[in-house]
């Protein structure tokens, strides 16, 4: 597609998808237009759109390496290269470094036309961007893998179709909220025997300004797309400031977005990249610029709190750190529970914001379908389940991926100092990338007696986030105590996820009430192929926005409603 | 109705009204369930609900005066009386003063049951509260009149049915946003030849905590109800801190709300009053309490900015001050324009946040259906229109109401020092209340040469808000200059309203583009019975939320979406 894209063409192609997305967020039933099987890609689909096969994706990625990544955006004052693959290969990609005094004004120029296009045309352009990204999912998978350290299959699924789903979901919410008010209305107020009062009113969704997306290292596309597409779909220009270790997936995204915008007759500068120099701190500079009116951020609590405090001119959406808990009270599927938890602890070396950290287990043990199990037995059986899951090196590598940065490795290596080690970490040789740092998770035993956690962090290492493959098996005096610790942890530290296993209606009620009152998302008795650390777009909320781990959720009305305002013009009719 | 109210009774009675409100906010057509004609009240309506006649309303108001206003809320540590009627009558009402260490915990106790009731039951209770308030509109009118200084008819309409409309509108938005996610869903994800993954999910709208409503002096109910009802309908408890000069209308509201909550089986402490001592500064104390998670505020820019900066634990919705502009370029109904503006400047002594302040008129005059008019002619003709409108003292009193507080009077008296007086203010004797301070508005001439307003406030008094019956007739070098000044004023000072008169498509486009880019609500060429300073619930947005005069609008999705969060619980199916 090199010829201009008309709105009619885009609408014909994408409006049915938007309608399905709108239906999905209403019913919360399973739905996705983005296949998650790698073999679904390659050749042309029913609509004639070509996608890259696995081999073509690999080739396209190789083409990107070792050269400058050209973006024809205004205001470049040099080049920057800051990425290192966690798998040890040389990326060698250089990106234009922005002169923001030139770039920001250029980004504003196209906003009136983008605003005037209206919510549907904007949604259609966003869906075309997503469709082109989808077609290149295998190429994107390599870029995500070699910046985040995710294993290929996860980089493909989470960085490809699942990220695209989250982007599309944001577009659907943005469309729904902008169109809940009609574009125009006639208003006739009766006046008894006199003529009625009559007005014609028009309503226009207007953008806030330039939106800033501050990307993260671990999920550059999955965590980046919701904010990017929510802001773009509501009429804002979007400046993408990637994490310096994970530029390529978002640079490629920006390139595709600019290409589609230009073809559809809009200013490509509505989307631009702000790749920074090492240690430049560009996010801090951009975040307080008056032109920046919306910020989406995923990362540390410290910088998230800084943004919420200092970027007062902007609407700030943050996903920060939390301490995720699983309450283990009882189960009627002991092995299923252990296997499910083992997977959750292992996936991507525990480097997900949703990975459980604290496993709260009654000191006196639990009732199970395999008979009563003591605290020590549960911990030992869980350790064995992890070892069994990761026993084969090739399979372990494909599940664990690589350690994303030296900080995670340091925390992992320091973990045995935090308590008795129930499961030690081991290095796993990667079959394809000998320089990758692959490690199995560690489980540390801890005492959950009330006096320890009521005394504060120093006595209870499990009260602080230990991001990476470190979890704590915390011996609790009772399930009621476990729920109290859960409440305290959510309230003080936040939680992206909570899990619980119980066959007791009373215990279930206690945990559920704690999650409702402290505002955290709860998964109960998961066994089999669904894990506490995974959520599905269009159905599951990612985070709640109501505890300290995040001030927003993916995705709800609140995620989009303050990205635009409605301006009314009224005239006598 | 003294027996318990069942949900079924409430739903049967109020669900049709809610559905009509939902339809109205979708179409923006004219609608209201609250009659604005005073004679519509008294006796029983079709549903058998009794309302107070004008005489009964007067009697009920007289009953309230000169005594303690009993509220059975916990944590009262004394009594306070801070009100003075702008009409000079003695109110003498004492309110319980709260011990917030007792009151705040008591308010939280009922929240889980209120949450569990769900969005529809909460909406029905809110509608019952509004219906009982509506039935007492004549009583409320007196309370609004004798605290705000509004004339009786305005106090009745704006403080009664129009305020109730805005409250209902907020309930409708809250209901729509909470129910866009279903209460429960089944999720089935195909797994090729394997069994599908299946989950049952429940979704619960959970409140943020206690919401604080900080009332204002001029529109205690109209500006108070949207936040109160939006927060209550989304499951929060609501603490109402009235302006010390306008307690009674909100105290009565709280009493009705508590009565309905109790009858419907909920904890009446979900709504409570926090009447303060004179100069106590209670809002500042409450606003930063950790229990307070939502704040609605109408008042000065200084305190609104303070809240936005310091109440970081809360979602803060503010309506502050602005400088409202009318651009006068040309008209095909010169007399209609003058009469319309004269009314807008006079209504409630210009003490509305929506009253125009700056009238921007080309120095070389304007084209009209009555021939070309010079700047001086336009100003003189407008002054004459105001004098004609207010020529009869009784009619003038009924339109002007009374000056609400000494600050407004001081500004009015200082106005002649700001420039040449085009229209002088005169005192109007009130036929019923000899001690009322009633004044006609003043119009001051000013020079709008670019050098003055580009130089800053000192040279151009019209760049600052002068709240009250003071407006500036600003001589501009051109309409284009007027639009530039309009833009600058909105951007720097904010605007709740913008008006414009023009017969030129080019000028109209310029003004409209300025309002879209600077985010302000625009009324074009209003003549006849619709005024720039009035908005209708369910159709018009009050403020935009996108310029410095307010960070929220009444009412849109953004006004409700962050008052609650959605908590999901998922279980294997």
TrEMBL record, chains A, B:
Q: Name one GO molecular function term.
A: L-glutamate gamma-semialdehyde dehydrogenase activity
Keyword set for this entry?
A: NAD, Oxidoreductase
- Which GO biological process annotations does it have? L-proline catabolic process to L-glutamate
Which Gene3D superfamilies does the record match to this protein? Aldehyde Dehydrogenase, Chain A, domain 1 (3.40.605.10), Aldehyde Dehydrogenase, Chain A, domain 2 (3.40.309.10)
- Residues forming the Aldehyde dehydrogenase domain are 99-488
InterPro entries noted in UniProt: Ald_DH/histidinol_DH, Ald_DH_C, Ald_DH_N, Aldehyde_DH_dom, PaaN_2, Proline_metab_enzyme
Carries keyword Oxidoreductase?
A: yes
Could you tell me which residues belong to the region Disordered? 32-57
- Mind naming one GO cellular-component term on file for this protein? cytoplasmic side of plasma membrane
**What's a Pfam family in this record?**
Aldedh
Species: Streptomyces bingchenggensis (strain BCW-1)
Positions the record marks as coiled coil are: none
Entry protein name: Dehydrogenase
PANTHER family reported for this sequence: DELTA-1-PYRROLINE-5-CARBOXYLATE DEHYDROGENASE 1, ISOFORM A-RELATED, DELTA-1-PYRROLINE-5-CARBOXYLATE DEHYDROGENASE 2, ISOFORM A-RELATED
């Amino acid at each position: 597609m090199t010829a201009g894209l008309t709105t009619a063409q885009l609408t014909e192609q994408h409006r049915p998808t938007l309608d399905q997305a709108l239906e999905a967020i209403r019913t919360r039933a399973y739905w996705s237009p983005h296949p998650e099987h790698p073999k679904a890609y390659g050749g042309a689909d029913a609509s004639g759109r070509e996608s890259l096969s696995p081999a073509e994706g690999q080739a396209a990625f190789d083409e990107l390496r070792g050269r400058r990544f050209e973006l024809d955006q205004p205001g470049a004052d040099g080049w920057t290269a800051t990425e290192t693959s966690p798998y040890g290969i040389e990326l060698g990609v250089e990106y234009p470094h922005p002169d923001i005094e030139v770039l920001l004004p250029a980004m504003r120029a196209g906003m009136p036309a983008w605003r005037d296009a209206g919510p549907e045309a904007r949604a259609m352009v966003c869906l075309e961007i997503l469709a082109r990204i989808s077609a290149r999912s295998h190429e994107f998978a390599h870029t995500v893998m070699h910046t985040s350290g995710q294993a290929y299959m996860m980089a493909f699924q989470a960085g490809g179709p699942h990220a695209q789903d989250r982007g599309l979901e944001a577009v659907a919410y943005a469309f729904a909220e902008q169109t809940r008010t009609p574009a125009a209305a006639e208003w006739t107020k009766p006046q008894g025997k006199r003529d009625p009062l009559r007005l014609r009113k028009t309503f226009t969704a207007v953008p806030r300004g330039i939106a800033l997306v501050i990307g993260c290292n671990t999920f550059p596309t999955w965590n980046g797309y919701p904010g990017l597409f929510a802001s773009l779909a509501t009429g804002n220009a979007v400046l993408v400031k990637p994490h310096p270790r994970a530029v390529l997936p978002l640079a490629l995204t920006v390139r595709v977005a600019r290409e589609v915008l230009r073809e559809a007759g809009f200013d490509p500068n509505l989307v631009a990249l702000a790749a920074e120099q090492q240690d430049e701190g560009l996010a801090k500079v951009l975040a307080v610029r008056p032109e920046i009116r919306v910020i989406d951020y995923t990362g540390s609590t410290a910088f998230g709190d800084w943004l919420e405090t200092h970027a007062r001119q902007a609407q700030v959406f943050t996903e920060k750190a939390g301490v995720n808990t699983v309450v283990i009270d009882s189960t009627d599927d002991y092995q299923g529970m252990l296997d499910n938890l083992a997977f959750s602890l292992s996936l991507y070396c525990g480097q997900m914001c949703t990975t459980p950290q604290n496993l709260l287990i009654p000191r006196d043990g639990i009732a199970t379908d395999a008979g009563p199990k003591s605290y020590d037995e549960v911990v030992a059986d869980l350790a064995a389940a992890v070892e069994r899951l990761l026993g084969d090196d090739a399979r372990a590598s494909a599940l664990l991926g690589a350690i994303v940065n030296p900080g995670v490795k340091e925390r992992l290596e320091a973990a045995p100092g935090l308590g008795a080690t129930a499961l030690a970490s081991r290095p796993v040789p990667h079959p394809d990338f000998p320089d990758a740092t692959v490690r199995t998770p560690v489980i540390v035993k801890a005492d959950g007696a009330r006096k320890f956690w009521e005394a504060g962090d120093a006595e209870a290492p499990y009260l602080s986030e230990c991001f990476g493959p470190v979890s704590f098996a915390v011996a609790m005096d009772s399930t009621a105590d476990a729920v109290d610790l859960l409440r305290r942890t959510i309230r003080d530290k936040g939680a992206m996820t909570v899990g619980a296993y119980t066959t007791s209606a009373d215990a279930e009620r206690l945990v559920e009430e704690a999650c409702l009152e402290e505002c955290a998302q709860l998964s109960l008795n998961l066994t089999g192929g669904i894990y506490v650390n995974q959520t599905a777009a269009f159905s599951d909320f990612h985070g709640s926005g109501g505890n300290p781990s995040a001030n927003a959720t993916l995705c709800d009305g609140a995620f989009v409603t303050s990205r635009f305002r409605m301006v009314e013009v009224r005239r006598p009719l």
